[in-house]
Amino acid sequence: MNERQQFILELLIHASSPVSIDSIVSQVQKSKRTILRDLSTIKMYLEAENIGELINNTSGYKINITEVEKYKDLMNQYINDEEVILYELVQREYLTIDDLSQCLYVSKMTASEKMNTVKTNYAHYLNIEVSRKGHRLNETIIKKCMLLCNLIENNLKYYLNLFQIPYENYLCLEELISHNQQIKEDFPNCSTHQIAILFIAATIYQGDYDNQDIQEPEFLDYYQKANIHANKKADMILQTISLHCIDIHLSLSKQHIYRILGLMKNEMMIDLDEEDELVYQLYDHLKRVLCFPHYLKMKEIYNISDFKALYPFSFDLSFKFIQYLKQLYHYEIPNTDFIGLYFAVCLEKIKEKKHKIIIYSSKNAIAYLNKQLLMDYMNNIEVFLTKTLDKEILQGASLIIDSIGDLKLNDIEVIYMDHILNEEEMISIETILDNVSIHKNKYSIFPKSLSYEYHVKEDDTWEQILNDVCLKLQETNTINNEEKTAILNRENHGNALIINNYIIPHCISKKENFCICVYIHLDKDIVVDERHIQHVLVTVLNPLVQKNVNLFKFLYNYLNENRETLQDISTYDQFIKLI
Fold first, then answer.
1. Phi, psi for 390 (deg, rounded to 5)
2. Nearest-angstrom CA–CA distance, 506 and 484
């Protein structure tokens, strides 16, 4: 299997329910035809190895692993081409394309293409240089060894076998470390497993290293007790990494995080510097990833593209946070997606507003029971029971559950229900509450006056189209120059937010309580990130605005639930009809 197929395999194994083909396409960003071929390959692999089955039903695809230990052993023997290239770059002073083609058993042209892919994928945090001698990883010994640790951690048994280190000896080393407090203090913020991986990386690292400042060995005893061969160079590497971890532990502080959040508040008008829980979570996370960074793609977040579609501003905030962290303190954070998840949770808590639900009923017992059921099921609600309605009790209400059946209101959502609520009905009520503010304000959030059809010229690029769109919005004072620049910069950094054939360029607004989403139809398809696009939704809002109530979550659900209907529309009226 190639790397993409392995990703799909892991995605379907870890999914709690079947995953639709459209969801796989969205996460992998390849065509449906390519994904179907990948699924066919995966099915053949599972059947050939007799380790599980690919289940296909109306809801989507799921993988059931029947031989768990056999599956783990097979995965531990697997190393993809990207990992081979990174490993060779760590271990060699120079890596030629001739050498690489022999390592990968491919032609020189294919080897060169694969090297270019690796250089592109890791350009943000690995300095891979090229000269007449070949490709060279121009990084510190610490960074090279940490990258080697990542590779070993992904395929531990593969590397142990490669260097003829018995697995039992490795387990012995882990056991020795787990019972020694001193060595944990030598590598603060690293787990027992990570320290053991560091020991293996130090002993198999093949590059030159000679630090004259280190005289006495400190860690050779652990190798000897575990019956693993190691020399003085391995010991010197471990001492260097130990000093690096201790230095980070001493220098990083919560005040750094408070300072950055304060700067973000001034720049983006979002007040997060008093969110102590966020600061503590970020502090703990930074300590872990700075002492033991992960340069390879994190396999834990299988559906990260879905999270980015639901909470895009959280990931924009995390990008700004990491920029400040590097600019002010020279800390480098690879695999930034986890930081975005912390911001997503924080923003949800800040703007969580209790919805007021009124149960309008003459039957006290059923009404009281429904109140308890709703309050047990949902956190962000207040429920009031009443037999009569007046202006005072209606004020601020998001929803009325009418069990009498004679209520008609224009400005408050009303549903009729005269029985004890079941779980499906409570899910329906939760969805109504999620979207009630959007429904009330749909014509101001999605203004018809700004919607139009864009005529795509033959040589138009997405950058040119977006620039034209933003200029037109700027001329109508819908967005200002700062917002236009932010939208264009975000798209230029890649990671376009695409749902089906809709692209959603967006930015954070500093304007209080501002929320707008402009629908634009393209009269011809364009291709962005290998996806065909025919609709644009320019979205600008303040993340703390009260009336948006998860606008991106709404768009994600709206575009997916009405996929077939919204696929081929061409006017604003058609777009807003189902809202």
1. -135, 175
2. 9
